Amino acid sequence: MAYIERAITDIVKKRVSTSKCLLLTGARQVGKSTLLKRQFAEYNRVTFDDKMTRLQAKEEPKLFFLNNPRPLFIDEVQKENSILEDIKVLVDESDARGQFIFSGSQKLELMKGMSESLAGRVSVMELSGLSLREIHRIKFNHHFVPTEQYISEREKELTEYPDIWEFIHKGAYPELYDVERDWQDFYSSYVDTYIERDIHELITADSITFLKFLTAVAARTGEILNYANIAGDVGVSEPTVKSWISILERTGIVYLLQPYSAGVLNRAIRKPKIYFRDTGLACYLTRWLTSDTLKNSAVAGNMFETYVISEIIKSFSNEGIDYRFCIFYYRGKDKRTTGENEIDLIIEENGILYPVEIKMTGNPKAQMGGTNVVLDKIPDKKRGMGVILCLIDKKTFLRENLIALPLKYV
């Protein structure tokens, strides 16, 4: 199969041309090195996966830069953060743009090193797995927000997707779309490599215990994060689970969706929800081996929600937007009802809150957006168009301010 053009490419090239350094983060195997080598073939390249290269960078940085002159692409730069101080000196000596490009799969740890050494000198971007837009060669590259303008522009490039469950089960790693790679073999190798090359450097636990932990987290994708519950299943302490969750987030395996915090929502739950970044990996770990069994399983709703959340996140990161300050969820108790009410996703933009429900149904109802009115309590914010992302065939208004959309609109 031909190379799938990544939606983030043009923005990466622009950032390289305007910044002294660029950092591209993302989980292993999402295509960081492939993209950068393809778009910046003229750059010298080294990888800190190589121990001898790391050793020279650490002990003889001047010799390292003589052997590897600028412009330079350093892969897995987080494995030798000490080099960043020397890079800071070099980039400060010149006004040239695009002197260094970095990639790394441990984004939070890497960001710490960048913020300490290269603040104001490095542009940070994130690459995720393939989006549905990329897989179907759709050029539209604007983040999802259910405004009239977005919907109108998106409709110019709509493509009918085949069975969505095939994509949910397969996952989004490029190699699965590049060659006829066996699904189980790929994910088995991925998990082994992830634990061997990333995790052993960050924890002291044995691989079997950590794999049990990975599986326990995958089984809870789309749920409110409960450290004690996971600790009980795995047989480790709650602080250990907190530390390991942080590692999963750092290495791009999970995403923690934060609750929307507003003082007037005093009955709201304050814990984050946890989502696997790749549904194929979550399916492999929880042993859903075919798309049909997944589609008809008890976890289908959570996997569907996980996939849609991931697609929305990709729409932000592929446009170079930091989604962490834009998307939230809400769950709380309303005095008028006995149970809890939830809004699956709240997208905030320009002081407007857009409530999004994610439902595995082809027959959406207006009452599915009943909780949206809670957002009217928040001062200085307006409630925008509500949307239900579901398995409906076409755009359908359920109320004047509530619309049901097929996934192809994301």
From TrEMBL:
InterPro entries to which the protein is assigned, alphabetical: AAA_14, DUF4143, P-loop_NTPase, Restrct_endonuc-II-like
Domain of life: Bacteria
Domain DUF4143, first and last residues per copy: 196-360
Signal sequence interval, chain numbering: none
Domain AAA span(s) in chain numbering: 19-135
Name of the featured protein: AAA+ ATPase domain-containing protein
Organism of this sequence: [Clostridium] aminophilum
